[in-house]
Amino acid sequence: MPTSPSSSAQAAREAVAWRLRELRKEAGLTVVQLAAECGWHYSKTSRIENALTGPSATDIRRWCAAVHAESQAHDLVVQSINAESMYRQWRDQVRSGLRYIQESRSRFFRETGNFRMYSSSLVPGLLQTEGYALAVLGLAAEIHHLPVDDSAEAARVRLERSRIIHEQGHRFVVVVEESVLYCQIVGPDAMAAQLGYLLTVGAMPAVSLGVIPMSARRSHWPEETFHVYDDRLVSVELVSAEVNVTQPGEVAQYLETFERLRRMAVYGAEARSLIAQALNAVDHADT
Questions:
Q1: Residue 118 — φ and ψ, nearest 5°?
Q2: How far apart are alpha carbons 21 and 46 in whole angstroms?
Q3: How far apart are CA 5 and CA 281, in angstroms?
C-alpha cells in the first residue's frame, strides 16, 4: 500500500523544519533569541520548527542570516517550495476558476509520453465526454462553493486537452473499477454516450482500457484515484487536496500498486462486455 500522500507532504515539511531547528541550535540561539533576530514573535519560530506553519522564502532567508548560514538559504527555500507544492488544497487551486486548472495542465500533458491512470470512482478526465465532464466539473463548482461557476468553460478546455489521445507519441494505460461504469453522475442519455465513447476509445491503438470486475478476487484493495506521468510524477486526488508525489521511492510504490491493480483488470472483449452490460442497464433504466 503506498504511503499516505498527505503524510508524505507533511514529512517533507518536517524535514525543512528539522533542518531550521538544527541550524538554530548549532548557532546557540534559543527560540526567543532567534525570533528577536528575525523580527517576529517567538511563537512563530515554534510553529515553524514544529512544521505547523510553512516558512516563506523571506522567513528562511532571515532565519539563515540570524544563524550565519546564508549559504544554506537557497537550498532550504527550494526544499520548502517543493514540500508545499506536494500538497495543494483544492480551495486554493479553484480560486482562479476551474478553467484555469484545466488550462494549466495542458502543456504538462503534451510533454508526457506514458500515462497510467487508475480510478475507483469516475471515468478519468482524458476519457470523458462533454456531458460527463460538464456534470463532474459542475459538481466540483458546487462542492467548492465557487463564486463564479465556470464549469462549462472548464469542460470545453478539458475536451480540447483530451485530443492528446489522438496524437502520436503518447501511450495511455487506464484501469477503472467496474463500479465506475454505474456511478450516476449524469442522466441516462449522457451516461449512455459516455459508455459508448469508452467502447470507442478503448479500441484505439494507443489506449489500453482495463476494467476490474466487481466479481474479481482482489489481490489489492481499491485505492484513491491516482495518475502516473512518465514514472516521474504521481497525482493523487483526495477530498481536500491534490497531492503531487515526486520522490522516486514513493513513485515506485505507486507504480507497483498500479501493476497489481492492472493485473486484476480484464481487457479487450471482456472489458467491452462489462461496458456493454452497463450500457444495457442504462438503456433499460431509461425505458
A1: -125, 135
A2: 9
A3: 36
- Read off the pLDDT band of 89 (50, 70, 90): very low
Within a 10 A sphere around the Cβ of 111, how many other Cβ atoms?
Answer: 9
Report the SS3 class of residue 166.
helix
This prediction has a pTM of 0.71
116: phi then psi, degrees, rounded to nearest 5: -120, 125
What is the per-residue burial (b if ≥16 Cβ within 10 Å, else e) of 238-271?
eeebbbbbeeeebbebbeebbeebbebbbeeeeb
257 versus 245: which is more confidently predicted? 257
Q: Give the C-alpha distances (Å, rounded to integers) separating 272 from 18, 170, 203, 207, 230.
A: 52, 22, 9, 13, 27
Give the pLDDT confidence of 4-42 residue by residue, as tens digits.
Answer: 555 566 777 888 899 999 999 999 999 999 999 999 999
User: What is the set of domains in the chain, with CATH numbers?
Assistant: 5-86 (1.10.260.40), 97-285 (3.30.870)
- Give the pLDDT of residue 37: 95
Give the max Cα distance, the chain.
78
